[in-house]
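Hi there. Long-time user, first ticket. I'm pasting a complex I've been working with (about 522 residues overall). I'd like to know whether the download I got is complete or cut off, because the file seemed smaller than I expected. Thanks.
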Amino acid sequence: MSERMRESLSALLDDEANELEVQRVLGQVQDDEQLRQTWVRYNLARDALSGHPLHAAKVDISGSVRAALAAESAAAAGGWKQRVLRPVASLAVAASVAATVVIGGQQLADIGADPYGQGGQAVAASASPVGLVNSLGATSVQASYGNRAVPVLQPATHTAYRELARLRMNKYMQEHVEHAALNTPQGLIPFARVPEIRE
Amino acid sequence: MNRQPLLPARRARLCRGASLSFILSLPLFASMASASCPGADSAALGWLNRMSHSLHEVSYHGVVTLQRGGDMQVMQVSHAVEGDSSSESMTRLTGQGAQVERRDHPLHCVHPGTRLLQVGAGLQAGDCGIADHYRFKVDEGGRVAGRKAVRILIEPLDMYRFGYVMELDRETGLLLKTQTIGRGDKVLEQFQFASLSYQTREPAPAEVSLVHQAQHPHPATVVSAPATAPWQVNWLPGGFTATDAPSGAAARRSYTDGLAVFSVFLEELGRDIRPGEGVVRSGGTTSYTRGMDLTGQAVLITVIGEVPVNTARMVADSVAWTN
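Hi, the file is complete. Here it is re-exported in full:
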């Protein structure tokens, strides 16, 4: 597996993948056994570390992805109209791949509504910091990084949480930096990260 | 003023405890190490070791810049070694007129993060330490603050941490420049000396309106004030170890792998919260906040540190009450 592919996978995990990267994974997941194995391995490692039962990670994601891909190629072969629509279909499948990849082979669930109202493009555009994505033409999955379901967010809650995260960053940065100043090689310099140093 | 001499002595005693408890934890660490170390490069690890010493044992002062995105801050730093202790200060020259200082820090007081950078001896014994989690490489360095530098490329071996490019003074091993590298080789944050002098003479003092005495948290300090019900973090990325020893009921835990630090904060909420999460990033720092119900109790968990958001999320996810 190439360095670039590894990076794309990592991007998917971090919810930072752009459309190109999603498509890169999409293009290869079909025939790349190693790519699939890498995912199973990542998931196994993660589950083992977090003390989850290992069987959960053995769900092979490739089947549903292949089915989605097959559906997409069938649609693309159908005529000029479908060919024009193809990019949209790609995004939808891309979203499902991303979701499947993010999920870590766990918690397959059927989710009805799309929380962001953006269809499958939510992942491709990296709009979702929350691991909940919906997809078209493929199995909907709930993404989680552990044993708890990631919360479903309404757009208003989403904004509120972002603000909350900002407030907490300001509140806790200095206490965090006290530890960074003694345990990283930069000495007192990390204090420059504190927005407003308090006495 | 006459209480001043007492402080170093007390700290020194505590610091011995700190070193001891860390040594005690080593055998466990060694038994987990594999026979060959993937990221080991003896030259690079030699420089790393040297850097960890020079940070504490060399006297210097200079001007350092911090760049994050389009923002730049400038600060004056000084570090003076006298006898068996050191004093250091950091004064902001832009923005807030604040100064942080740490006085009379004993030289033998080595914190867990620094200890993790000193892998030389353990490597021969088959203990890879930090080389299990990063790949190190020495490269030709440029000039930083007028000094010839050697460049150390530090690449993460998993996706739970960032990469770094560090430049050290060829003569003294002092860390002159740090770039934090995120995904796609993107520079998230950069610290760099703009000027540096190894004279001990202090530079002219800058005007400050606030002086903060840096705290001294380490593994021998037990924070006793209970802030919450006892809780624990059940998952850490490989190579991370606690920076101090808070009680199970303290509101904070902090962890380091030698190059990065992150802290976990837990708040018990008086009423229910709509579950959710939010992320804010600033340079190399991620702040991730999650509101949820932890077996009947609404809590807010915040993970803040120099790690990718995925790491912060997984750590937050592993928080549980201690039974």
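A couple of notes from our side: Confidence is low (pLDDT under 50) at residues 47-61, 82-149 of chain A. Residues 115 and 152 of chain A are 7 Å apart (CA to CA).
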